[in-house]
Design brief:
The chain is α/β, with parallel strands linked by helices. It has a 10-stranded mixed sheet. It is globular. The structure holds zinc ion.
């Protein structure tokens, strides 16, 4: 069973017919058929056209769109159209517009202009979602519901009076009493002791650093407030159309929303991914976000939006060179997506996204862009059998949103250079380069089945987290500045690594962050020299029985002190090595993990196994030779390939279906 009732892989994009006269629609569906489009996302920003006045619905145009699409074999990911409230609602209820941290109420004229906590806004979205569900419940084009759009893209938090009331309700449920809140927030510091709930406000712009415990609760609350918006619409859709899958499009590795929690509330994980073609790390960043999407529900997901070429919202928007759209699309399939979807089908004539690329560009069909769209559609059809195939990873990277939020509190940390996305990438990139499949996992999850688990950082660490890690039987690596605080952002008694102390067999005496450009040398017991940047620690390890020192600092005030330690199967790193490869190779060997294509993978080639299919992707601008571990058929070309060397052209790929072994 796939993500939807559509067989094979999904191919298509956002479709905004309301921006075009109806004669263009007929050309659209003709060209969609030519390209092999089988799914489009419709009505994302259509609220003002579907409900032009309170309770007055104009569904006629959308009826005709859905009928036309269905008649031409295109199914619909139908948005509930609630991503941007219409002008009449905003003017009648100006209080639904969001307020920023400085107290400015934001104006109408863009998108996502709503306060997540507004009861007026939530009620209006639920009314529209119900009207949509009742109108289209039996429509044969309906394949999936798309609630709102890119939650937290522009409005991740709102600081208005209504949000303040909602925040207080949320705090009362969490902390029960004002005494509980005062204790959890440590309000004895800086004279913040509250004597009445009405004194408690969101962490608006203040003269200096705001209370980090208040900020942590605020980030929890803000993720929950948006989730409540999603849940309210989802409940209506499930009531009216229980069998239609419901999703909302995520935004890759996004700090603002706890996607573990969100993914539990949706049927299908979908993602919008816009790696920057000008970023040399685009491919590895994209791979990390795709692996996160695959890990959220541990099932195939869908790349719901990507850019055929340039986007329009960066300061400089570099287009994709020939072949890059195809390569990036194949990469998403390699990492578990059951389709390739774009923003958007037809390039806009007006609005802020008129220069954002599309499957069908301003220049029409006599363009490279359109030829690449047609060719990609054909490739996607050739790979139909990959749909539903799952990935088995032996390595997991731990990611915890609460820890992330705590770690990145402004103006109150030993260093603001520890950024969780970068810490994840520092481990993910060398794993990716070795063709090692990686899952992401929350720290409380049952980790059995993995051979190696890496926690790049676990700043916020509870007893439950520690118990889950202690119960894990494989190799474990914990990165620096972990086990520092509890769920209330209060430092563990005795200092770091707090509840991980027995497991790791170390005690951290002092944080020693490094200024930019400064390095600290460390040497492993076998003489390998490494350089640390950004962070080091004064570590005590010898006092704990059974803790071995794997590397020591050399030079400076830390000279001779432990830098990397191991107790049992648990390794602790007190620093950030510039290149963790030597440590990683030892860990992979000890854990018995080998990459897909062994050690001989060329630098620009990504190797990724999905089910029995082996994806080899050459991200480089020149040819690259890879050794196939087994014979098989390249699904993209139909060529039979023997085991052994195969040369990939620039930006080219092989999707190998291994030859079945005869018993
Ligand atoms: Zn608000």
């Amino acid at each position: 069973m796939g993500l939807t009732r559509i067989p094979g892989l999904l191919f298509g994009g956002d479709y905004n017919p309301e921006q075009w006269p109806e004669e263009v629609w007929r050309e659209d569906v003709r060209l969609m058929a030519e390209a092999g489009v089988n799914l489009v996302t419709v009505a994302v920003f259509s609220w003002s056209r579907l409900e032009p006045a309170p309770g007055v619905y104009e569904f006629g145009w959308l009826d005709r769109v859905l009928d036309l699409l269905h008649a031409n074999g295109v199914a619909v990911d139908l948005a509930t159209a609630t991503a941007t409230p219409p002008p009449w609602l905003v003017r009648e209820h100006p209080e639904i517009q969001p307020v920023d941290a400085a107290g400015t109420r934001l104006e109408f004229g863009s998108r996502q202009g709503y306060c997540p906590s507004s009861p007026v806004f939530r009620a209006a979205t639920v009314r529209l979602a119900r009207a949509m569900a009742e109108r289209y419940r039996e429509h044969p084009a309906l394949a999936m519901w798309h609630v709102s759009n890119e939650y937290a893209d522009h409005t991740a938090e709102c600081f208005c009076a209504e949000s303040a009331r909602d925040f207080r309700r949320w705090l009362q449920a969490r902390h029960r009493s004002l005494d509980g809140l005062n204790a959890a927030w440590g309000t004895s510091c800086w004279g913040q002791h509250y004597t009445d709930w009405t004194q408690v406000e969101p962490p608006r712009k203040a003269p200096g650093p705001v209370n980090p415990a208040q900020l942590l609760d605020w980030r929890r609350f803000s993720s929950d407030a948006l989730l409540a918006c999603f849940e309210a619409e989802r409940a209506v859709l499930k009531e009216v159309t229980p069998d239609v899958p419901v999703t909302t499009n995520f935004m890759s590795v996004l700090r603002d929303l706890d996607y573990w929690k969100w993914a539990e509330c949706e049927d299908v994980v979908t993602d919008d991914a816009y790696p920057d073609p000008a970023d040399p790390r685009a491919a590895v960043k994209a791979a990390l976000s795709y692996d996160l999407m695959r890990s959220l529900k541990r099932q195939p997901w869908l790349l719901l939006e990507s850019a055929p070429s340039a986007v329009s919202w960066r300061p400089v928007n570099v287009p994709k060179d020939p072949g890059v759209m195809r390569l990036h699309s194949l990469q998403a399939l390699a990492h578990g997506s059951d389709g390739v979807m774009f923003f958007q089908w037809r390039q806009a004539k007006y609005g802020p996204e008129k220069f954002h690329s599309a499957m069908l560009p301003h220049g029409g069909t006599a363009t490279r862009r359109w030829r690449e769209t047609l060719a990609l559609g054909a490739d996607v059809r050739r790979l139909a059998e990959v749909a539903g195939a799952t990935t088995r990873a032996e390595v997991a990277l731990l990611l915890d949103w609460e820890s992330w939020w705590g770690l990145e509190a402004p103006e109150s940390m030993p260093s603001d250079r520890l950024r969780l996305h970068e810490l994840l990438l520092s481990w993910y990139a060398p794993l990716h380069a070795r063709g090692v499949a990686v899952d992401l996992a929350p720290p409380g999850r049952d980790l059995s089945g993995y051979r190696l688990v890496i926690a790049p950082n676990l700043y916020l660490c509870t007893a439950e987290h520690a118990a889950a890690l202690a119960a894990f039987e494989g190799r474990l690596v914990v990165g620096p500045f972990s086990g520092v605080v509890d769920a209330a952002d209060q430092v563990h008694d005795g200092g770091a690594p707090g509840p991980l102390r027995d497991l790791l067999g170390v005690r951290v005496e002092e944080w020693r962050p490094l200024p930019d450009g400064v390095t600290q040398e460390l040497v492993t017991t076998d003489g390998t020299r490494l350089l640390a940047r950004t962070w080091t620690e004064w570590l005590d390890a010898e006092e704990t029985e059974g803790t071995d020192v794997l590397a020591r600092y050399r030079g400076g005030p830390l000279h001779g002190r432990p830098a990397v330690t191991r107790r049992g199967a648990a390794t602790y790193l007190s620093c950030l090595p510039e290149d963790p490869a030597p440590l990683l190779d030892d860990l992979l060997t000890a854990a018995g993990v080998t990459g897909v294509a062994g050690a001989g993978l060329p630098a620009d080639v990504e190797a990724c196994r999905r089910g029995r299919y082996l994806f080899l992707l050459n991200h480089g601008a020149g040819p690259a030779t890879v050794t196939l571990p087994e014979p098989g058929t390249d699904l993209l070309t139909g060529r039979a390939l023997p085991a052994g060397p195969v040369t990939l052209g620039p930006r080219d790929a092989v999707v190998l279906k291994p030859r079945p072994t005869t018993p």
